[in-house]
TrEMBL record:
It comes from the Bacteria. This is Transposase DDE domain group 1. Residues 9-64, 70-205 form the Transposase DDE domain. It comes from Halanaerobium congolense. InterPro entries: Tnp_DDE_dom (IPR025668).
Amino acid sequence: MVTISKKKMDFKSNLKINFNGGDLTSDSGMLLFKEFDSQIGFSQVIKGSLNFNNDDVDHSLHENEDVVLHGYHPLLMFDGVTGDLIKAELRAGNVYTSRRAVRFIGPVFKEYRKKFKEIQLHLRADSGFATPGIYRIAEEHNISYTIRLKANAKLYDLAKPFLKKLNQNSEISKKQVIYGEFNYQAGSWDKNRKVIVKIEKPAEGCPNK
């Protein structure tokens, strides 16, 4: 077995117990976690990065099952680590996902980049936000992003070498996953951007792209 990393936890082996009363605690087990956290530096990594999760929600208010009073399609932004809501905006239910999205996230990017100049900021979003405007505003503020792309014939064509590699694997009885990357420029984009492809093949099944 390959050992990736070894960390030594320095805990005192002697315990002192008395029955003189005083303050009690039920969270002394946190000492173990704090020591572990101190050794691997997890908290420091969290402090050095921040993830934005951008999302939208279709929501309708019904007076009864037959009558729709109002439809809403709000924009939402969350902290990707804590799940805390950063910003929300209510929109009409008949607008597309990316409508006003640049105006929505732009001020957030500007504020966070001004306050946290040194930390790594990252945006995650679904394919509804895969627009040149969102790419550009993230790049302008030095914010990395992972945004799902809707599949099209060109992307399928570029992914063929990875699919071929997956099909060459003879272990059809096991689930298989393969990743690859290539440069791609859609017609509305101003430049090439890196695309990550993930292809899955369930055990004894057809591949899922």
